[in-house]
Amino acid sequence: MGRATKVVLAYSGGVDTTVCIPYLKNEWGVEEVITLAADLGQGEELGPIKEKALKYGASESLVADATEVFVKDYAFPAIQANALYENRYPLSTALARPLIAKLLVDAADKYGADAVAHGCTGKGNDQVRFDVSIAALNPDLKVLAPAREWGMSREQTIEYGERFGIPAPVKKSSPYSIDRNLLGRSIEAGPLEDPWTEPLEEIFVMTKAIADTPDEPEYVEITFTQGLPTAVNGKALDPVALVSELNTLAGRHGIGRIDMVENRLVGIKSREIYETPALLLLIHAHRDLESLTLTKDVTLYKRGIEETYSQLIYNGLWYHPLKDALDAFIIKTQEQVSGTVRVKLFKGNATIVGRQSEQSLYTPDLATYGADDQFDHKAAEGFIYVWGLPTRVWSQKLRG
């Protein structure tokens, strides 16, 4: 690792990233540390975080308001791609990492820093997402990861911070590790490390327990324009307001909880709990609208693209040329994906009960079994003969 004189540090306000400030300066000889906290709609007051960084040695403490960009430029493309890692996780946390990496690179350029840093450990996915994204955006920029290299336990990290006036955190009442942004929450560690242990209700914030949800269903209509969600119940909303509204609606009915054992990029399995009410609902509705507006072959081909797309995001390859190419394919498919989906929210379930579109490929005269049926039934016999001909030839040879 080469020496760095000025570093932009991704800053959360927690113990690890706060200790990174004196550690970078005293152990690695960094002259100036600039911290950057990203506001991604996590609902926290970032003012105290800004002051905290300055108090413990940062020369500048930046707070980037990036919620709108996060939803519009990162979440919405993932919705168009129906991106679900391992067909379950809608990548609420993973989507934030390439944006934070871009904010770090932009800040480094603006302030003339020769390196950026983060507080990721060597065990998780985020270190890869940050390092690779930064390398894609500026391959000449050094990336420092103190927590990956300092070899200190949690207790030792706290003791190190105390040497520089950083107080030990008040005893944690929660053993969980939690990450939050507007798209959702991820909860891990503590008793959740046993995959047999049922999550306690206390860990959930965005979604209600089924017992506490309304006893009557609620219907919501979600409108998409070229694959992008644009309105809820007929009311046009900006991206942040739309996601916020659906978080409230879906969360009230206990929709959006995920409990899964996922395969991390570093090769280990991890038990993860997610709350992503709006994001799951939007992907569910968007995929259904595609069934109405895309041809069969495009739909089937896109399913394979979606799996690859999800893996690219999860594996930190947002700025990869393959993703750029897949983006072009997905954007092309979305030209006809406009319309409205009606969803019934009730007791943890989001059931699609209606869909309509001016680009609909559904033809009532062909689909009906009533008197208006325009399908040529006589044509079916010849079609079946031609379609089944390879099977017939194979069978004859096999049994000949």
TrEMBL record:
Spans through the membrane: none
Keyword set, alphabetical order: Amino-acid biosynthesis, Arginine biosynthesis, ATP-binding, Cytoplasm, Ligase, Nucleotide-binding
This protein's GO CC annotations: cytoplasm
EC supergroup of this enzyme: ligase
GO biological process: argininosuccinate metabolic process; L-arginine biosynthetic process; urea cycle
Cell compartments where the protein resides: Cytoplasm
Ranges for domain Arginosuccinate synthase-like N-terminal: 6-167
Pathway: Amino-acid biosynthesis; L-arginine biosynthesis; L-arginine from L-ornithine and carbamoyl phosphate: step 2/3
InterPro entries to which the protein is assigned, alphabetical: Arginosuc_syn_C (IPR048268), Arginosuc_syn_N (IPR048267), Arginosuc_synth (IPR001518), Arginosuc_synth_CS (IPR018223), Arginosuc_synth_type_1_subfam (IPR023434), AS_cat/multimer_dom_body (IPR024074), Rossmann-like_a/b/a_fold (IPR014729)
Binding of ATP, residues: A10, Y11, S12, G13, G14, V15, D16, T17, T18, A38, G119
EC number: 6.3.4.5
Protein family membership: Belongs to the argininosuccinate synthase family. Type 1 subfamily.
Protein name from the UniProt record: Argininosuccinate synthase
Species per Swiss-Prot/TrEMBL record: Oxynema aestuarii AP17
Gene assigned in the entry: argG
